[in-house]
Write a structure and sequence with these properties.
mainly alpha; elongated; 117 residues
Length: 117
């Protein structure tokens, strides 16, 4: 999951040092797993899987308001340019699909549903 997040963040927020950003975000994902998966495993062994699921849900519920308040999709949303973008001639591009939407939402959902079946 972190692969597409790292790619999206680096492409929207950085012009220079994109590789470094992708590397840092990927490493932070791995570090989080290294720290929290053993903790969750010990909770599952000691108390049961329901407690671990409730802990993950509670942490997600605590983080969601901060994400909604502070996280922005594009630097232009807060009046900035991506890091390394030239001052002259930079145009913010908000559409991540330059060719439009190649797959209709209905077809995408149908494919996702078929993959889960």
């Amino acid at each position: 999951m972190a692969g597409w997040v790292a790619a999206t963040v680096s492409n929207r927020w950085f012009v220079k040092r994109r590789g470094l950003v992708v590397g840092l975000l990927t490493a932070s994902n791995a570090t989080g797993q290294l720290a929290f998966l053993p903790l969750l495993a010990s909770i599952v062994v000691a108390v049961g899987w329901r407690s671990a699921v409730l802990l993950v849900a509670a942490v997600a519920a605590l983080v969601i308001p901060f994400v909604i308040i502070f996280m922005r999709d594009h630097p232009a949303d807060i009046g900035l340019r991506p890091y390394g973008a030239p001052e002259d001639g930079y145009v913010a591009f908000h559409d991540a699909r330059p060719c439009g939407q190649p797959v209709s939402p209905g077809a995408y959902n149908l494919g996702a549903g078929a993959a889960l079946a």
